[in-house]
Design brief:
Blueprint lengths: L9 E5 L15 E3 L4 H6 L5 E5 L10 E6 L2 E3 L1 H6 L14 H4 L5 E3 L5 E3 L15 H7 L4 E4 L1 E4 L21 E3 L4 H12 L2
Parallel strand pairs: 1-3
Antiparallel strand pairs: 1-10, 2-8, 3-4, 4-9, 5-8, 6-7
Length: 191
């Protein structure tokens, strides 16, 4: 079934820490290139992703960002695409430059390369299993040009959409009536 014929899915998850890395909302395109391998593996064009705030920062139920997936790329294509060079991390730069998410690509011998980034450890480039988690399950970067990113200032859904709030671990996609789901997505797009 094509993306235009199948119902779009609504993925929801809690963002553990919000630095502008995953998601990366800079340069007029929101990208999810790191973390959330289940979402990156399963999402298709037209699907909607919503990131909620964590309880540890008293942001339960608060929307940090949402995006509609309009393009999916492999890591190597994302790395090589000139328009996404600005999403490569530039340590010591501004917030936008420091937390670039364009960090994975293959070397000439086929091994994964992880550039120095937010996911690096102090003593090595590959940090804390991030390379394996980010690249081991899927080689996909999700891009969305229809998105909103509020950070800690995001809205909370009104009562009629309470069932769409996600506050637990992991990620889910919401099975709901198409009418309710599309009403929630319409509410997001009007914020």
């Amino acid at each position: 079934m094509s993306a235009s014929k199948r119902p779009r899915r609504l993925y929801r998850y809690v963002i553990d820490h919000d630095k502008g890395f995953a998601p990366n909302p800079f340069f007029k395109v929101c990208t999810l290139a790191c973390c959330k391998p289940v979402i990156r593996k399963g999402a298709e064009i037209g699907d909607v992703i919503v990131g909620f705030g964590p309880a540890k920062h008293e942001l339960t139920g608060q929307i940090i960002y949402w995006m509609v997936v309009d393009e999916i790329m492999h890591f190597d294509d994302y790395w090589k695409e000139p328009q996404f060079e600005m999403k490569r991390p530039r340590p010591g730069g501004s917030l936008m430059l420091n937390f670039g998410d364009n960090i994975y690509h293959h070397s000439s011998d086929g091994r994964w390369v992880q550039e120095r980034s937010f996911h690096s450890d102090a003593n090595s480039l590959t940090g804390g299993g991030n390379l394996k988690r980010d690249t081991g399950h899927t080689d996909r970067v999700l891009l969305g040009r229809d998105f909103a990113y509020w950070g800690a200032e995001g809205p909370r859904p009104p009562a009629q959409f309470k069932g769409f709030v996600w506050s637990g671990r992991g990620q889910v996609y919401k099975v709901a009536s198409e009418g309710r789901k599309e009403a929630f997505i319409g509410w997001l797009q009007n914020q």
